[in-house]
Design brief:
Helix 1 (2-22) crosses helix 12, helix 4 (81-94) crosses helix 7 (138-162) and helix 8 (166-174) runs antiparallel to helix 9 (179-207). The longest helix has 34 residues, at 43-76. It is globular, with a radius of gyration of 22 Å. The chain has a single domain (44-272), classed as MetI-like fold. By secondary structure, the protein is an all-alpha fold. It has helices at 2-22, 34-41, 43-76, 81-94, 100-110, 115-123, 138-162, 166-174, 179-207, 211-217, 224-233, 240-272.
Length: 273
């Protein structure tokens, strides 16, 4: 445990403590509340926070829904064993595929001159860009995020589905219950903490993502990680103190969602035990 503890202290506890201190420091190093006041009073920063929350919420809910359906199919859908192995392997890879490579892949596929756009336009006469679709908007970024959100949901919800005991379904049938009764009164109440916790995990995962959004949209969609980058490293919006305050706000939001996820996961594990 010693290497893990050292890693946690150096790369988690110490940076978080520095954020907490420097978020209340002025340009001259003195204590100030101006950074926190600007955090809530700057319209562009408030808008960036809400934009990140909206994108994270939409992709978390959609990723949880479709990821659950895929996980249900491979665990309880009586599919061949090789299908499950292939899906889980792909999910493990896709859940970690993000950043510039993922953005380039979608630009080359769904961009204005991408492969799908070319095929639809030249083979079928459909120009979905003229119909209003734009990869570099809220909708486009949400679709890109779903590429790693759905596989992550598959990975975290499969163990919960495997924890559903066959005896519970048999007991429901013996007592005269239908399949609908089993899911309504047994399966869904047992799975609900895991499903909600997994959704919160997806929310935190999307909330902190920056490389994919920055490579895809640049500054067109100023989600809060891009706003943070602009405050600390930008040439125009260069206010490190405000940047530390933004980072502290992000830490608070992700800590709340991650803490709720851990609590819900521990609650759901009681049924498995």
């Amino acid at each position: 445990m010693l290497p893990f503890a050292a890693f946690s202290v150096l790369f988690l506890i110490v940076p978080t403590a520095l954020l907490l201190v420097r978020a209340f420091e002025g340009p001259d190093g003195s204590f100030t509340l101006n950074n926190i006041v600007d955090l809530f009073g700057n319209p562009s920063i408030v808008h960036s926070f809400w934009l990140s929350i909206e994108i994270s919420f939409v992709t978390a809910v959609a990723g949880a829904f479709f990821g659950f359906l895929i996980a249900y199919a491979i665990v309880l859908g009586n599919l061949p064993g090789w299908v499950r192995g292939a899906v889980m392997t792909f999910a493990g890879v896709a859940s970690n595929f993000a950043g510039v490579p993922l953005s380039f892949a979608f630009i080359a596929t769904l961009g204005r001159v991408g492969l799908v756009a070319f095929i639809l336009r030249d083979w079928f006469g459909i120009n979905f860009n003229a119909l209003g679709f734009n990869l570099y908007t809220f909708l486009g970024l949400s679709i890109v995020y779903l590429y790693f959100q759905i596989p992550l949901m598959v990975l975290v919800i499969v163990p919960a589905l495997e924890g559903l005991k066959r005896e519970w379904r048999e007991a429901t049938a013996v007592l005269g219950g239908t399949t609908f009764d089993y899911w309504r009164y047994v399966a869904i109440p047992v799975l609900w903490p895991s499903m909600l916790g997994s959704t919160l995990l997806l929310f935190a995962n999307a909330f902190g993502a920056i490389a994919t959004a920055y490579a895809l949209t640049g500054s067109a969609l100023t989600i809060i990680p891009i706003q943070l980058y602009a405050q600390i490293r930008g040439d125009v919006l260069n206010n490190p103190g405000l940047g530390y305050a933004i980072a502290l706000g992000m830490v608070v939001i992700t800590s709340i969602t991650s803490g709720a996820y851990i609590w819900l996961r521990n609650w759901s594990e009681r049924w498995v035990r």
